[in-house]
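Consider the record:
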Amino acid sequence: MIITIEAEDKRGAKTTKDYVVIPTLDPLLVASEQNIETLVGESVQVKIELDKQNEDGNSYISNINAEESYNSDYISINNINIINEDNNTYLVGDLVAKNVLAGHEINIAISYTSKANIKTTTAKIIVNSKQGEVTVIVTGVNGENLAINTEVILENTNGEQIKGRVSESDGQVRFNSVKSGSYSVSIGESEGYTISEVLPTNKFTLNYEKNSQIVYAKLVPKIADMTHGLYEGVSGNSILINENINGFEMAAEANINFGSTFKLSGNGVEIRLKVANELLDTDSKNNIKVYKVVEGSGEAKLQEIDKNKISVMYEAVGYKIRINENIQSDTQILIRYTGKIPKESSIFERQYTNNITINGESKDVKVYTTKKSITLPDLF
C-alpha cells in the first residue's frame, strides 16, 4: 500500500512524498499516549497502557522490556517497569519534571518479541509543568514587612517539612519546587514579637491549576509586666503605680493622675485606652503623656517620647495611641493621663472604670465615690 502526502507552503509551492505501508497480521504492541500535568520537583506516576494487537492462539507477544530509567536536563523517570493489571499490560514509572515545561514530548522505547522477531515501539509522554511556590510575608501591626530572621516551616499532611528563614532585607521567605498537596505554615519564635494571626488560617492546597500561594503572618510586639492604677511618681529604679482590684474611693471634683506601665519589645504597638466619659475634661487628650523609662545610677529617669512619634486619636471606644518610636527589646513604657471626678458625685454613689488594652493584654482601674465621700472645698 502506498500513501501519498502532499504539502503546500504559503507561496503555493507544493511537494509530495510517498510512503509504503505493508499490512501485517503479526502481533503488534501499540502504546497509548499520556499527558501529564505536574509541579516541578514532585514525583508523579506514569501509567501507559500497552495494547496487544493481532494475537491468537499461535501468535502472541512476549518478552516486553523497557529501559529502566530515563534522564534529561528537563525530566527524569525512574523505576520504569512493565506490569500486568486486570488482564491489561502497562508501562509504569515515576516521573519528575526538573524545569517549567509546556508540551514537552518524550518517547520511551519498548522492545518485545513477536513470532520470534524482536520488535520495538514507543510510548509517548507529553509533560506540562509549573513551579509550585509558597511565599510567606511577615508583617507588623501596621501591615509593614518585618525584616526579622525568624524560622518558617511549611508542612504538608504527610508530615513532610520544608524549612526556611525570613529575609532580613524584605521580611519574606520563598519556597520553590513545592509539591502538590495540602499545606500549613508555622512561624518560629522571634525575639520581641508574638504571633497575632496567620492567613489563610486553614490549610491550603497546591496543584497544577493553583500552583502558588501567599501567606501573611502578622506579628505584634510582646507586652509584659503591665500595671494600671494611680500614678504616684518614681522611687529609685521603680515607677510607682498603685493598683487595687477593689478600686479607689475619691472625693467629688478630685483631679486624678492615672498611670500604666509595661515592658515593650518591638515597634508599631497600638494601645487602646478607654477612660470613663464622666472623668474626661476638655484637655484630656493633651494630658496623655508617653515615656520611656531609662534606668540611671540608682534612679529611673522618665524620657518623654517625642510627640511627633506618638499619635493619639479619640474614637467612640476611647483613645487609640500608637508609638512609632524605635523601641529596644524589653523597654519599660509609662503612660500617664488625668481624669476628674464630676461634682454631682457628691450626691450619688458612682463608680468609674478605665481600661487599657495592648495586644490582647488588658487592665482596669476603678475609682468610686460614696455618700460619705467629701466634696473638695472651693478654695477661690
Summary: Residues 193 and 222 are 5 Å apart (CA to CA). The longest strand covers residues 212-235.
